[in-house]
Design a protein that fits this description.
The chain contains nine helices and no strands.
Length: 167
């Protein structure tokens, strides 16, 4: 019966296993021992209905199988990325030292974007620079800041990190 309902062997096996498990747990509820087959079919029917509802909810919650860049940009993730997680993990003192070691142009952009939360357009207006320059400096500044934080963390823990001669 499960195979006819499912159309796929694996799904039918899953339903059958769940049916037998529920039957084993609730065997004391069996009133008529002659009607075991009907009782199992009733349990199977409930298992199929539960699984069908669960799959419908799953498809409803996750309808997109392939996501392109435009969809990702439209639905940006609210959780912090690796850079933000690294910043959150550092102590304020380490962060202050690392930011102070950045060259001035990079330090300004990193502070305005990551500490003050300004948009690229607003930073470009404040510093009177093209938006592309802001984006480039932010990317390079974040890399330099991350290297400095890793080096500082290594020094504090007694491990010298290879910084390649750069801050």
């Amino acid at each position: 019966m499960a195979l006819r309902q499912a159309g796929a062997i694996q799904l039918a096996e899953d339903w059958t296993q769940e049916t037998l498990l529920r039957a084993w747990r609730n065997f004391s509820q069996l009133d008529d021992e002659v009607a075991v087959y009907a009782w199992l079919l009733k349990i199977l029917d409930r298992v199929i209905a539960d699984d069908t509802r669960r799959e419908a909810r799953r498809r409803q919650l996750a309808p997109i199988i392939a996501v392109d860049d435009a969809q990702l940009q439209a639905h940006a993730c609210a959780s912090p990325g690796p850079f933000e997680q690294t910043l959150q993990a550092q102590t304020h003192a380490q962060l202050a030292v690392a930011i102070h070691q950045l060259p001035e142009g990079f330090r300004q952009v990193v502070l305005l974007r990551d500490m003050e939360g300004l948009s690229y357009r607003d930073i470009a207006a404040v510093l009177e620079l093209p938006k592309g320059t802001i984006m480039s400096r932010l990317s390079r500044g974040r890399r330099m800041l991350a290297k400095t934080l890793i080096r500082l963390q290594g020094v504090e823990s007694g491990i010298e990190a290879d910084s390649g001669g750069q801050p």
